[in-house]
Amino acid sequence: MEKEEFFRKIFNKDNDKDTHGAENEMVPPLLALSASEYLEVLKAYKEYVPPSVKEMFMISTFGRSAEDLASVILRFPAYNHLILQRAVFNVLEGWRMVRGFKPGPGNTRLPMDHMPLDVNYGVKEDSIREGMVLLESPEKEGGINKVIVSFRYIDSIDEENLSTEAVLTAEKEQKPWLDGLAKSVKEWMEENNYLRGKKIKPNATFLDTRRQYTWDDLVLPPHTKKDLQDTLRYYFELKERLRANGLPLKRGIICHGQPGTGKTLLGRVIASEVNATFIWVTPADVRYPSHVREIFRMARELAPTILFFEDIDMYATHRLANITNGVLGEFLAELDGFVENEDMLVIATTNDIKAVEPAIKDRPSRFDNVVRFPSMRMDERVAMLKILIKDFPTKGKKKDIIGEAALSLPDITGAKLKEFFISAVKLAIVTSEVDEKGRAILSSAIFRETQKKIELNRERLMGFKER
């Protein structure tokens, strides 16, 4: 039974006299029905679903039933949430937002749900988390001057499948126009993505790059540092020559060594030095295969890109010992699958190279180079101490103080040497070895006393425990 017929039979008081006779004129409508008609009405009542607040909004806007409207859905990974909305409003520049709301429970209209998102470190821009907006053009554009856009940020409890969508709705005959609008939105997103060239996390939050690092901050054997610098130079400065010679524009480096040897610092240096998109990935960012897939998709969209995977042994261990084989399998596929990783340099770090899956570390087409970050040699300890001590006053010649300290600290990593230096500065402050400005005055005696304290309290000092 049609909905209109359902309502007529229940609410219409002008019953069919030919069927029920004149005596039924004053009988309530339901009681005037035959048993089969009554059952038909009950069935229609049970099956009837009233229009939702979305449908009512569309019907009242266009004066059409939902069946006479057309929609185009644009869906992207969650990191495109803000750029998608920017694209819609820029492509429809000059169109006026007439009204907007968020569909609520019980067919209610609530204020739109908003969400601030990073557009730079410490800088946020408002976005519509969920809501419907009616946009009108002052003049008809191709026969259309109204469009409804529904924005929604789609999340899940486990954050496995995060996405964003915009649904464009207009009259059915305007479907070609909607398709053209969707195409223009996608093109605008590609040309104006504010994340391209930035230093970010996979969730599109920005890294703190207020302190800029240089290659001088990274203390490594000269040949190791040169190899890393050359790889970056070849990749970004000579890529056209690589193309001309038919060489693939994808390279990878695995950096390994004990904690504190400079692997994380390498990422900070590259983020500061290289003019390209930089995406810093930690184990917490790759809990599901879908996370790996979206990270590589993001890197391709924002190319040229450096993907920096920290502690790869946490999610790409040997497959026989790996409880997250889904993540490992997706990682292998994205590194060397059907989709080309043009203009993408992948750098991974690990404290335990033996734990990394052989198909990652031993196959050249995935990672070209495996670089060892060793403990510091004597000349490297001297170089790092020169950097650390340069702004401090000293009691005695800096050269002699640095030489003695470096000689007394064999087989130490950069992180431990920095912690040693901080401990020495604290000791100088506590013992009132300071100048008129309150700056710590460093000396060989302070360094020797610091070393004694570390030896006595080795088990209680972070980073100095015996292995």
Short description:
This protein is α/β, with parallel strands linked by helices and 467 residues long. The protein folds into 4 domains: 3-47, no CATH class; 53-194, 2-Layer Sandwich (TATA-Binding Protein), CATH 3.30.310; 215-372, 3-Layer(aba) Sandwich (Rossmann fold), CATH 3.40.50.300; 379-456, Helicase, Ruva Protein, domain 3 (Orthogonal Bundle).
Describe the structure.
The chain has 467 residues and is α/β, with parallel strands linked by helices. It folds into 4 domains: 3-47, no CATH class; 53-194, 2-Layer Sandwich (TATA-Binding Protein), CATH 3.30.310; 215-372, 3-Layer(aba) Sandwich (Rossmann fold), CATH 3.40.50.300; 379-456, Helicase, Ruva Protein, domain 3. Helix content is 38%, strand content 21%. The chain is built from 16 helices and 13 strands. The protein has helices at residues 3-11, 17-20, 35-47, 53-62, 81-91, 175-191, 222-237, 239-244, 263-273, 289-301, 325-336, 358-361, 378-389, 398-407, 414-430, 444-456, and strands spanning 69-77, 96-103, 109-110, 113-120, 123-141, 144-154, 163-171, 199-200, 250-256, 277-281, 305-309, 344-350, 369-372. Strands 1, 2, 3, 4, 5, 6 and 7 form a 7-stranded antiparallel β-sheet that branches. A 6-stranded parallel β-sheet has the order 8-10-11-12-9-13, with helices on both faces. The protein is elongated, with a radius of gyration of 33 Å. The chain starts with a helix and ends in an 11-residue tail after the last helix.
